[in-house]
Amino acid sequence: MNAAENVDLLINARWIIPVVPQDRVFEHCSIAVKAGQILAIAPQGEAAKKFNAAETLDLQQHLLIPGLVNAHGHAAMSLLRGFADDMSLHDWLEDHIWPAEGRWVDPQFVRDGANLAIAEMIRSGTSCFADMYFFPEQTAAAAQQAGIRAQVAFPILDFPTAWGQGPDDYIGKGLSLHDAYRSQELVRIAFGPHAPYTVADQALQRVATLAEELQLPIQIHLHETQQEVQDGIKAHGMRPSRRLQELGLLSPLAQCVHMTQVDQSDIERLATSGAHVIHCPESNLKLASGFCPVNTLLEAGINVALGTDGAASNNDLSLLSEMQTAALLAKAVAADASAVGAHQALRLATLHGARALGLEDSIGSLEPGKAADICALRFDELELRPLYHPASHLAYTDNTHRVSHLWVNGRLLLKDRQLQTLSAHEVISKATQWQEKLGASH
């Protein structure tokens, strides 16, 4: 008889949706974790005999899923949650958000806002997030300290901000940040040209060249509103997506955020280039920016992931909520109730996000050999009864408060809804201090 193999952790769960294999639900199975990776998934009786665990956790009323991947956001903008509401993107940005940022954004603002966002994301099951904001070194440090996985895109714009003077300055600082995190497992640096209307051709071409040389991702807001597309055609004689294609920016490294204004030519460009789409349905709805045709994009073979955008335009960072909205909205936009089913909605929030960020080989599904990024949800409440199909309740029910545990690389970041690597009291205190400062001037 073979001796039991030593493992760090054995999680026994009522249900597991691994994402790979596709559309499967495992019942009464265990996940064995060793050295931060998933070693095996096996029936509980078999796992108990096969593994000698340093720690065993029984979650017999819980559902396990891969840690969620929030593929677009502006973490520090959590300090502007509810600061300005009920207006178009143009008015919201130019009349309220940009003036507030110009006055208040500094390294401490970004660090405190990032900690608030990270705490909220951990409590809602997100194990990996993508960010684009000023002072990205602060967001990167906050993520590293909290133990969450992150893609941190440094902003690139044509005009000066508190963080830089122009494209050359932004890129220089961003490449230095990349050098600082080159050997770090959890934090990856990316290029973040803000949008086609805020970055000129020369800078976009340079980003495309450097990204290809360094094999770093590029995240850019694209086709967010009808006005953006119309202004782009007027200024450049072509749709913004075509301009990016001609500048060499559309590639498998490109993460195109929003894409609410899409025609057939845009779809063909995305499909041919291998670029990814990051869908932020709740932000798009709140700002009345438009509808991303998710089902049409998926049918064209385009990878679509989910993002929350910033809490200033959402107002929450729950990817579970975003997944529910995305699934329901996709059906309405496609006029097809079968569009983006429950299992597919989970794939958008996990494996598709990992693919968009270039992390598909290590996260996005619960498979042996992948990182132990695992989310547990308590699924025994009366609102979930009867329970015929766990995936149905996961996709179509508000589950944010049901997240009980979260592991990243096998490290426990949330235990019974209590943060393990951040102080909730400190996070709230800092947010309250910023509220008092900004509120007094608003």
Write out key terms for the chains shown.
four-stranded parallel sheet, 16 helices, eight-stranded mixed sheet, alpha/beta, 442 residues, 40% helix
Could you please describe the fold and organization of this structure?
This protein is α/β, with parallel strands linked by helices and 442 residues long. It contains 16 helices and 16 strands. The protein has helices spanning 44-50, 89-104, 107-123, 136-146, 167-181, 201-214, 226-236, 240-246, 264-273, 281-286, 294-299, 319-334, 342-349, 351-356, 390-396, 424-441; strands at residues 5-16, 26-34, 37-43, 51-66, 68-70, 126-132, 149-156, 187-193, 218-222, 254-258, 276-279, 304-306, 374-378, 403-408, 411-415, 418-419. It has an 8-stranded mixed sheet with strand order 3-2-1-4-13-14-15-16, with helices on one face. A 4-stranded parallel sheet has the order 5-6-7-8. A hairpin with a 2-residue loop joins strand 2 (26-34) and strand 3. The mean pLDDT is 96.
